[in-house]
Amino acid sequence: MATFVRASIDRPAYTLPGFYFTSAEVFAREQERIFARQWVCVARSADVPAAGDYRLIEVAGENLILLRDYTGKLHAHYNVCRHRGSRLCTEMQGRLGESIVCPYHAWTYRLDGTLAAARYMQDAPGFRREDWPLMSATVAEWDGFVFVSLADQPTPFAQAFAPLIGKFQAWDVARLQRGAQIVYEVAANWKLIVANYSECYHCPLIHPELVAISPWQSGRNDLTSGPFLGGYMDLFHESMTLDGHTRRPPLPGLAEADQRRVYYYSIFPNLLLSLHPDYVMAHRLIPRRPDATTIVCEWYFAPEVVATADFDPSDAVTFWDRTNRQDWHVCELSQQGVSSRAYRPGPYAQSEGLLWQFDQEYLRVMGEE
Fold first, then answer.
1. Of 289, 229, 296, nearest in space to 264 by CA
2. Of 264, 252, 236, which Cα lies nearest the Cα of 320?
3. Which end of the chain has less neighbouring CB within 10 Å, N or C?
4. Whole-number Å distance between alpha carbons of 47 and 65
5. Whole-model pTM above 0.70?
6. Do strands 261-267 and 271-275 pair parallel, antiparallel, or not at all (unpaired)?
7. Are strands 280-289 and 74-78 parallel, antiparallel or unpaired?
8. By three-state DSSP, how is residue 314 classified?
9. Which one, of 39, 43, 368, 19, lies nearest residue 227 by Cα?
10. CA 262 to chain CA centroid, nearest Å
11. Which residues fall within 8 angstroms of residue 111, CB to CB, at 6 or more apart?
12. Torsion, CA 353, CA 356, CA 358, CA 361, rounded to 10
C-alpha cells in the first residue's frame, strides 16, 4: 500500500544555476550522460504494431529505426549501413516487408539486423556476413510505452523501473488506444518543463480552468526521491475537462478513490505520465537545444470507448491543450529569465519539493553531486 505525503524540504534548497539551462556544453553533456545512457521513452508499442512496421526515432542526436520483426520482437537499429555509413531509411515511418535494403549499394539486412546479402563482397579478403549486423540499441516495453537505451550495458529495465512495474495496473495503460496527439515546439529547456509539471504552486495564477475542478493544494506524493517522482491531486468532478464532466465512464478496474483523483508522475528523463479516471495523458520530451524542446502530447482511452460511433476526445484535449499552452508560455518566460546575467538561483518553496528532488537526481546522473 503506497503512503502519500506532502512533498517537503528539510533544508534550504535553491534552483539550479542559469548555465544548466543555457549552456551548449551542458546540453552536450546531458545528451551523452543522460539521454545516451538512461532508458529514454521514444514511442508507444502501437506505433509499430506488426512485423515490418517501422518508424524513425531520435535519441541523443542519433537516428534509429524502431521496428518489429516477424517474431514480434522490437528492435532499434542505428539508421546507418555497415558498408559506408549511408542512411538506410529516409521516410519517418512505413513498412519494410522482410528486409532493410541500403539505397546506396543494396546491402540487405533482415529485420533482426543481421546482414543477409552484400553485393560482390564474397571476394573481399576475410569478409563474413555474420560479422556485419546493424548496430542496435537495447529496447524495452512497459505499459504500452517503448524505451530505448544507447548504453553498451544498460541497467536491466526491470531493475531500473522496479518501482513502477505493476504500479499502474488498475489503469491497464498498455491496453489503451491513442485518441489524440498534439506536438508542441517550446522555446524552453527540457528541465524547466519537467519542473513546471511537478508543482502546482503556479496553478491558481495561470490555470483558472484547472483549479476550478482540481484543488491546487491537494497534492500528495508517494514517489519522493530518485528518478520517478509524483503522486495525486483531488478532483471535484469526474474528469479533467473544461466543465469537469464527461460522458466517458471511468476506466475499468479503478478503485473508487482513484475515480476522484488524477495522478501525475515524472519518469526520468523524458516522460510525464498523467493518469485520469477516464483517460491517460503522456508528454514525451525531446530536447533539441538548450532553449528548445519538442513535446509530443498524447491522450489514451479505453478501446471500447474509442470504437464507439460518437467517440469524441475533444473535452479532454481542449482542456489540456489550453492548460499546456499556459504552461509552455511561463516555461518560455522562465527560459528568458534564467538566460539573464541578473539571474541567481532562487529558494524553493515547500510545495516545490519534487523539483528539488529532480535536481538531485539530475546532478547525480550528470556526475555533479
1. 229
2. 264
3. N
4. 12
5. yes
6. antiparallel
7. unpaired
8. helix
9. 39
10. 18
11. 51, 52, 67, 68, 69, 70, 75, 96, 98, 99, 100
12. -130
Spatial separation of the C-alpha atoms in residues 223 and 358, rounded to whole Å: 11
pLDDT digits (tens, 9 = 90+) for 155-207: 999 999 999 999 999 999 999 999 999 999 999 999 999 999 999 999 999 99
**Strands 108-110 and 220-223, sheet pairing:** unpaired
* C-alpha cell, 317: 484535449
Q: How far apart are CA 127 and CA 253, in angstroms?
A: 57
14-27 b/e (C-beta count within 10 Å ≥ 16 → b): ebbebebbbeeebb
Q: What is the mean pLDDT of the chain?
A: 96
> For residues 258 and 167, is the Cβ–Cβ distance under 8 A?
no
- Type and span of the H or E element at 41: strand 40-44
- Distance (Å, whole) CA 285 – CA 272: 8
How would you classify the pairing of strands 136-142 and 74-78?
antiparallel
The length of the chain, given as a count of residues: 369
* β-pairing verdict for 177-186 and 292-301: antiparallel
